[in-house]
Amino acid sequence: MASHPLFHRRTPRSQAPRAGLRIALGALLLVPSAFAQLPGQPSPGAGKVIFQQHCALCHGLNGGGGRGPDLRRATLDRAPDDAALKSLIQLGIPPDMPDGWYLSPDDIANLAAFVRSLGAVPKETLPGNPARGELLYRRGGCSGCHILAGQGSGFGPELTGIGVKRGAARLRQTLLHPAETLPDGFLFVEAVPSDGRAVRGIRLNEDSFTIQLKDAQNKIYSFRKSDLRALNKLPHQTPMPSFAAVFSPAELDDLVAFLASRTGRP
Ligand code: HEC
Ligand code: HEC
Fold this sequence. Notes:
Layout: H1 5-37, H2 44-54, H3 56-59, H4 82-91, H5 105-118, H6 130-139, H7 168-176, E1 188-193, E2 199-206, E3 210-214, E4 220-224, E5 228-233, H8 249-260
């Protein structure tokens, strides 16, 4: 059969490219697994175990986000390369993300490898429509308390890059139950001076002797604690209203999609 002239002519042409393809595929499949077996090479599998223990609380079991952002992105804003990613994991992001003092250099390398592997997982598509959400943002009076891309006033936290800071489920929870999702370090306080009216505001700074607040008009106050009749910390309270009764579930989807699209990038 192989001696048939037709086969002689066809074989080299049709098989050569296929053999080449097989070698290329083999190389693709072999190279990464060979690396994973080298001692000292970071292992995403080992990273995943540490991630689920220490990071999932904020980033979700599969990295899909929550109190922290969705990490299933090919590029991370705060970690453009692996060195930046490792140092971010080691140092944390004060005050929102704790540092990794308990992690060994190997743990950090494995975590970084796992976080990078998440970049290959498709990002969840949100149900809402960001353009409609932007109209709701205006209608909801959000800019009375938040700055977004230079617009609004700054009593509440700035929302310019909120889409890289929080996951969608968490954003929705904030809109429904803002007191349940207070950002780290956030404290609402009431200061009652011995000779004046009570001031309610967000704590900016505090030490043993003084406290600084910002009220809803963005006015900043500084009090000496010895001048105060009372200083009431109001934990679990926030001036942000719940929007549960304001927006329908579909409108909330739109608003969440709009907020999630605010990455701080033009
Ligand atoms: C207490 C909550 C919390 C924990 C625990 C936490 N993070 Fe975060 N993480 C955050 C928040 C919030 C941000 C966004 C902060 C910001 O952008 O201001 C963040 C940001 C990040 C980013 C940057 C994302 C980007 O787009 O640039 C990476 C990467 C990251 N976290 C990885 C981890 C890893 C790995 C761990 C576990 C070792 C971890 N985080 C533990 C809350 C947390
Ligand atoms: C009366 C002022 C006020 C209004 C109006 C208001 N907010 Fe807020 N918002 C705050 C304050 C203060 C916080 C921080 C404490 C908290 O989370 O409740 C906050 C927190 C948030 C957060 C969480 C930020 C973070 O870092 O996790 C988001 C998201 C948010 N607001 C979105 C909105 C949107 C969208 C609207 C309009 C529909 C809105 N806010 C209306 C005051 C306000």
